[in-house]
Design brief:
- The protein has 385 residues and is an all-alpha fold.
- It has 14 helices and 2 strands, in the order H-H-H-H-H-H-E-H-H-H-H-H-H-H-E-H.
- The chain has helices at 2-24, 26-41, 44-47, 52-84, 88-110, 118-146, 153-172, 187-211, 226-229, 238-269, 274-298, 302-331, 343-357, 365-383, and strands at 149-150, 362-363.
- Strands 1-2 form a two-stranded antiparallel sheet.
- Helix 2 packs across helix 10 (238-269), helix 6 packs parallel to helix 11 (274-298) and helix 7 runs antiparallel to helix 13 (343-357).
- The chain starts with a helix and ends with a helix.
């Protein structure tokens, strides 16, 4: 009799489980519907600049949908991180976000008038938001909860070594070369920077995932509680999470192509700083990593937070700069990479503060406050350069 009762209840449980799956992935349904609407309407819906309220409404609509989908990307990436282990889970999240960034920057660069500083502004904004805003927030929240947090010094040194080299070569050196006028590289210099950036990033991935994988793993006792800390996640099979991650990325990439157009039009319509567009792109790109990094810090897993945020910055410099330069070469558009004005000393100060912050194996609240101060300066210089 009990067997018959369980058989009767089984279909109900299956239907409930199916409804829970659909509810959990509602962001994908909304994103797919939004993509269908915008592709069916064509370009007239997003190119209309005659009605400011409509332009702002479309901008906010796409921003919210992309952000919602980005949160879902972070959720599935966290599940894959549990199943695959570090640093593979973090690497999946980082490369997913960088693919979004490249598509958004490429679309914005190819739309409308030539904006030679868009790629530089987006890359610089990623560095400032990740190394100052998000790192500062992680250190502050983690310090308030645990007083001190520990990390693997060898892994951080590997990150900073490559980040500092590529950041100075890509964003500082163009201001001092004499082959061309302005903060730009010559064609030969652009090809050289693109090749060495990709090569150095590939070598870093080899170190991170194979030869010295232990450098990027939490060596403290905090790693033991990783699985129990993820009890709120609905764990399913690896193919399921991988498929959903890919579907969300496709939706975000499609929406990003549409979002770049009203973003560019809004900046021109309301006479906003060009750097604001790069900051918006960077904020959307970093949203999956930001949520995951903050959550990891609150679980006292600072090493994972560092892997996420430093990995995002390194991938941005190592992959996005070559992508921007390649687009410029193919379309014969000038690309200005050199950071100028007050942003130049801010970039150098950020790199120096990162070195000082991560010279020992533990962090505290004070270091987080210093990074947040530099982030506030970055926001100030966008609107008051």
């Amino acid at each position: 009799m009990l067997a018959r009762m369980s058989e009767k209840e089984e279909p109900g449980r299956g239907a409930k489980s199916w409804r829970n799956k659909v509810r959990a992935e509602s962001a994908l349904l909304v994103s797919a519907g939004t993509v269908a609407i915008f592709f069916a309407a064509g370009s007239r819906l997003i190119e209309d600049v005659a009605h400011p309220l409509l332009l702002v409404g479309i901008f906010l609509w796409l921003f919210v949908i992309i952000l919602w989908s980005a949160i879902s990307v972070a959720r599935h990436a966290d599940c894959l991180a549990i199943k695959l282990g570090e640093p593979y889970g973090t690497l999946i999240l980082t490369l997913s976000a960088i693919s979004i960034e490249v598509v958004m920057i490429s679309t914005a660069m190819l739309h409308g008038a030539n904006n030679p500083t868009l790629g530089r502004d987006a890359i610089f904004a990623v560095i400032m938001i990740a190394l100052n805003g998000l790192v500062g927030l992680c250190l502050l929240l983690g310090g308030l909860r645990y007083r001190e947090q520990h990390y693997n010094l060898q892994g951080v040194n590997a990150y900073l070594n490559v980040i500092m080299s590529l950041a100075v070569l890509g964003l500082v050196l163009p201001n001092f070369t004499t082959s061309t006028s302005g903060p730009t590289f010559s064609i030969e210099q652009e090809i050289f920077l693109a090749v060495v950036s990709l090569l150095l990033y590939a070598i870093f991935l080899f170190i991170q995932t194979m030869r010295h994988r232990r450098y990027f793993m939490d060596s403290s006792d905090n790693a033991a509680g990783t699985s129990s800390a993820h009890h709120t996640l609905q764990m399913r099979s690896t193919p399921f999470h991988a498929t959903m991650l890919l579907l969300y990325l496709i939706a975000i990439i499609c929406l990003s192509e549409k979002f770049a157009i009203p973003l560019d039009n809004s900046i021109e319509k309301f006479h906003m700083p060009q750097a604001f567009g790069g900051a918006i792109i960077a904020a959307l790109v970093l949203s999956p990593e930001g949520f995951s990094a903050i959550d990891a810090s609150l679980r006292n897993q600072l090493q994972r937070s560092i892997n996420i945020l430093f990995g995002s910055v390194l991938a941005t410099i190592g992959l996005t700069i070559p992508a921007v330069l390649t687009i410029g070469l193919l379309t014969k558009r000038s690309v200005a990479l050199g950071v100028q004005g007050g942003n130049l000393p801010l970039l150098l100060l950020t790199l120096a503060v990162c070195v000082v912050t991560f010279t020992s194996r533990k962090t505290n609240v004070l270091q987080g406050c210093v990074h947040l101060l530099l982030f506030a300066v970055f926001v100030l210089l966008i609107f008051a350069p």
